[in-house]
Amino acid sequence: MEQYDLVIIGGGPTGAAAGLYSGRSRLKTLILERGMFGGQLAVTEDVENYPGFESILGPELGQKLMDHAEKFGAETKTVEVESVDLEGKYKTITTDGGTFESKALIVATGSMHNKLEVPGEDEFSGRGVSYCAVCDGAFFRDKELVVVGGGDAAVEEGAYLTRFASKVTIIHRRDELRAQKILQERAFANDKMDFIWNSTVQEIKGNGLVSTLVLNDLKNDRAYEKSVDGVFIYVGLTPSTQFLNGVLPTDEQGHLHVNLKMETIFPGVFGAGDVRAESSMQVASAVGDGATAAIFAEKYIAENFS
Ligand code: NAP
């Protein structure tokens, strides 16, 4: 079994920042990631609210953060964590690529995109249904697209899709967007963007590829069909804590309960970034969480393993 001072589960901005601080503390550090390093940044276009960078592409920022952690010695592995044992002095992390033992553990697994959970969504996933504008937007040149949701992601990614699509219609279940005001202003000023308010998607239909949405007009309690070439779904995020199997306490949505030092109820086990309750879900706050968790993990190790 490979041994580390600190294992960090999650290779997004939080994990990268924790790895940077841990590496500089000369802790033997391992960052585990099941998908793409960079987390949500890997599937984000422009980032305009990361301090110090007026505008930077999400994947580029994600890469810079990981490179920085690796520069100071953090190791990385692409594996899926299957379970954790937090009871002993050493924490055991079992993955599909081996088992690791660690003096301290940071859970920085972020979150996954929610699904709409409507008929047709799974059937047409990758055939007109997408959760990633950066990955799939270019396939819809001069096509008519729908984006479902009213938050930052829906409005920001909807605007990005207008680079390719002839028209992008945002379908929102209320009559007011949740997104930051600056994103709303840009969307309302964008000639290619349109809005359908007080409406939900009931069903996604097509023949091999998406062709039609069945919408529910909530104000008039009326169902009707709309022709589309593609639908991008941005209806919020769910924390990735399922692999913990209830070992750590969470709120109803699955966010970890931590204190201001990012400590969970298990000594030496920390939760940081989007995965924790009350996170502001920003890249800037994610890296702050990661740094905080690593600083207190180092303190914990110094006090308990010297
Ligand atoms: P979000 O802020 O939770 O917004 C989700 C949107 O989807 C809401 O408008 C919600 O409607 C709607 N919704 C939820 N369930 C739905 C359903 N079943 N059917 C139809 N609509 C549904 O999620 P997000 O936009 O993915 O953002 C997640 C977090 O990341 C946020 O904290 C956000 O600030 C952050 N983020 C920031 C940036 C940035 O700073 N540039 C970019 C992307 C994301 P209601 O409004 O009615 O609840």
How would you describe this structure to a colleague?
The chain has 306 residues and is α/β, with parallel strands linked by helices. Helices cover 23% and strands 31% of the residues. It is built from 6 helices and 19 strands. The protein is elongated and about 65 Å long. Bound molecules: NADP nicotinamide-adenine-dinucleotide phosphate (NAP). NADP nicotinamide-adenine-dinucleotide phosphate binds next to α4.
The largest pleated sheet is described as: 7 strands, mixed
Average of pLDDT = 97
- Total number of helices: 6
Shape: elongated
Q: Give the C-alpha Rg.
A: 21 Å
The structure class reads alpha/beta
List the helices and strands and how they pair.
Elements: E1 2-9, H1 13-24, E2 29-33, E3 46-47, E4 56-57, H2 58-71, E5 75-78, E6 81-85, E7 91-95, E8 98-107, E9 111-113, E10 129-130, H3 133-136, E11 144-148, H4 152-161, E12 167-171, H5 181-189, E13 193-196, E14 199-207, E15 209-217, E16 222-227, E17 230-233, E18 237-239, E19 269-271, H6 283-304
Parallel strand pairs: 1-2, 1-8, 2-5, 8-19, 10-17, 11-12, 11-17, 12-13
Antiparallel strand pairs: 3-4, 6-7, 7-8, 9-18, 14-15, 15-16
NADP nicotinamide-adenine-dinucleotide phosphate binds at residues 49, 116, 148-154, 156, 173-174, 178, 200, 234-237, 281-282.
